[in-house]
């Protein structure tokens, strides 16, 4: 048999000899427009970055950070986003660990999520975005299990899903 003929028939020959492998891919398609609402948070903001936030569980003043030319000394949208993303991610870690059969520590100080939200871009061109760096620190499990939990968490955390494709998120896992 010529080399050309062999190359032409190779895909057919491999397909004939390869065992059929069937996999079922389960895809969940959450319709974000029509799915039932589980919880709604409301906040009222006045004064933008140098203003005030009022909500059911939060009342605080805002200040533009010193690094952006403001007075600093008070919280800002990036800090609030960092806190929200970190808390949501850590809650989703508990669900992911349960689904994977991994036992996370029960002491709160043995599972820490540190989240840094960076305002990035060009202020003059008003071309701005955010980047997230997260450190997930857990005591009492293997690095392999922690990496599995974090990978699964990125799939189920609402903040991770909302920022996917829009925000560069880097996650470092650390065993305490």
From TrEMBL:
Q: What is this protein called?
A: OsmC-like protein
The record's Gene3D superfamilies line, in alphabetical order, gives:
2.20.25.10, 3.30.300.20
Q: Which GO terms describe its biological process?
A: response to oxidative stress
Q: Which SUPFAM superfamilies match?
A: OsmC-like (SSF82784)
Q: Which NCBIfam families match?
A: organ_hyd_perox (TIGR03561)
What is the species listed in this Swiss-Prot or TrEMBL entry? Pseudovirgaria hyperparasitica
Similarity remark: Belongs to the OsmC/Ohr family.
The coiled-coil segments of this chain are: none
